Amino acid sequence: MHLPGLYPAVGRHLHHPGGRCLDAHCLRIAGRLRGHGELTLRVPPLRLRSGLGPRQRRSIAVTGGQRRRPLGLPAPDRLRNARGSRRSRRAGRRRARSAAEAWGARDSRSRRQTCAGARRGAGAWPGGQEAFPIPPEARPEVPPQVAAYLSAPAAYLYAGLVDLDMLHRRLCEIRDGQDEGGNGGRGEMFFRVYGGGFHYSTNDAFKSYGYDTTGDYTAMQFGANIFRFPSASGMWRFGLAGTVGWLNFEPEAVDGPSSSHSNIYRLSAYATYQSRQGWYVDNILSVGWFNGTIDTSARGQAMRLQGSDYAASVEAGYPFALPYRFNIEPQLQLIGQHLGFHNATDVDGLTVNIGSQNQLTGRLGMRVTRPFDVNLGRITPYAGIDYLHSFVQGGGVLIDDVNFAAGKLGDALQYALGINGRSIRN
């Protein structure tokens, strides 16, 4: 790359066109600059990773060096990538060399050096730094928001699981009403607020861009029965419920900090059969949509995150009575989910296609309850533990022309503490 004429160094950028140039062993920048400042090299994001062969990836690096430094030519450490994210701190290391030593290994016969990764005798270039080979376990760094793009599917799937699980919890209030002689009519309504934190441990390796994620999800849920059909053996109930939730998550990434904040809206329809012998089957269909942002500390809002959510769930359980009015209830649940993310272009010009993410999750759980009668009705504290297993591998996320693997939702243990309450009007 040649800088024609006297190029002002203050606040200026160079644009690397990418393409075949990225197959080079090193990038040489020549020319005359005046003034003091920072010279910035723009390399098309992510293309470096896809444009190199396996052998080149192990050794190529974007570094700075020069033959002379007239009139304040930027020092090597002042030549940087425009996005600040092309080279990972883990991906390699640089070491200052004297002017007599050039880039890479010294050629004793010609007293010249070769660029790191170049063949012996090729690409000789005098300069002040040497780029060492990249370790095999390393990988190129990506813009910080990429970690949030890859973590989003698992976070949204988790929020959907929580919403459906809490909608099943309304059955506790229904049973309390029956125990107290309620008729379970059309006036049967419910409202609850719930929330909690989560930690996701990825199944993908660091080299495959796997990210652990922490976050929290809080929501409020309300609904009511619309129809009921009693029989000699039990009762069917049909109703509607709405959910409004707030999801926050933050990947743990060496590429840089990023986070996401989203609003989630969901409308659900349910059909429940409850036997007079105690067992039940609860069926739910839901449709939802979400609207949020991906943010980074470097660029602020990087992209809006929008899409839709569809889910179906069936749960069965049977409560067993224990002494002192305790109840223990084993539960079995199967949940199918479909997420559809809208395509978008982020603040760095990356085209992001998270696409469709599908998951089938099974849950085996146990819940212990103990009701207490109070003046206005009944309250029922509960404690539960659930084991969740996902049967579908994580989908792909396409960013520019690079296809990343999103982490599988995987296996999880879920702990719950809460209180259900029912008010009765005389």
UniProtKB/TrEMBL annotation:
SMART domains: Autotransporter
Pfam families, per database record: Autotransporter
Database matches in Gene3D superfamilies: Autotransporter beta-domain
Annotated region described as Disordered, given as residue ranges: 50-128
A single cellular component GO annotation: outer membrane
InterPro entries per the UniProt record, alphabetical: Autotransporte_beta, Autotransporte_beta_dom_sf, Autotransporter_adhesion, OM_autotransptr_brl_dom
Occurrences of domain Autotransporter (ranges): 182-426
Ranges of Low complexity composition bias in the record: 113-123
Top-rank taxon, per record: Bacteria
Residues that span the membrane, as ranges: none
Comp. bias intervals (Basic residues): 81-97
Protein name stated in the entry: Autotransporter domain-containing protein
Species of provenance: Burkholderia multivorans
Lineage of the organism: Bacteria, Pseudomonadati, Pseudomonadota, Betaproteobacteria, Burkholderiales
